[in-house]
Design a protein that fits this description.
Number of helices: 3
Shape: globular
Order of helices and strands: HHEEEEEEEHEEEEE
Structural class: alpha+beta
Mean pLDDT: 88
Low-confidence stretches: 16-27
Distance between the termini: 80 Å
Radius of gyration: 22 Å
Helix content: 10-25%
Number of strands: 12
């Protein structure tokens, strides 16, 4: 008979542990408040990106969204030095959502996918990244930001309103 109470105790313990794990797994982390960095590089991608997607004025989409797919290259240069464009900009891995412009790795490739893929601007992308970008400053570095767009071998000056899909390579440089 002593085996029965021990077995019952073990089963109760397992049930309690499973209940605690199920409760934890079902909880959602509240979104972080989106703040734009005015710090010097490097800049990490926001881990909990939903707030930055909303701040950029974009609709979050499922991670498996692939409509209107296109890839562009983004080069970022501060004080003559290249800055890494990190993986997972515009990707909310906690909620399995993404923005129509996002990165999968640190190669500088920006993926345009989803309903707003043709409309996302350079300015919105930097908002997704959480980095200040305006006509004068990029992060902490000020002194005139220059944005250029390359398409079909020709390079032209652009601004933060440039749609990412209107170029093959976009360079953002300051300092």
């Amino acid at each position: 008979m002593p085996a029965l109470p021990r077995r019952l105790g073990t089963m109760i313990s397992i049930g309690v542990v499973m209940s605690v794990l199920a409760a934890c797994a079902g909880q959602r982390t509240p979104p972080a408040e989106a703040t734009i960095s005015e710090a010097p590089p490097p800049w990490a991608a926001p881990r909990d990106a939903i707030s930055w997607i909303e701040l950029a004025g974009l609709e979050p989409e499922r991670l498996d969204t692939t409509t209107n797919q296109r890839i562009i290259e983004l080069r970022v240069i501060v004080d003559g030095q290249p800055v890494e464009v990190p993986a997972y900009i515009g990707v909310d891995r906690v909620r399995a959502l993404q923005a129509s412009a996002h990165t999968h790795d640190a190669t500088g490739k920006v993926w345009l996918e989803g309903g707003q893929a043709r409309e996302v601007t350079v300015g919105q992308f930097f908002t997704l990244w959480g980095v200040r970008l305006d006509e004068d400053c990029l992060g902490a570095t000020c002194g005139g930001t220059r944005i250029t767009a390359e398409r079909g071998g020709s390079v032209s000056d652009a601004d933060t309103a440039l749609a990412l899909g209107d170029a093959e390579v976009i360079t953002v440089e300051v300092g």
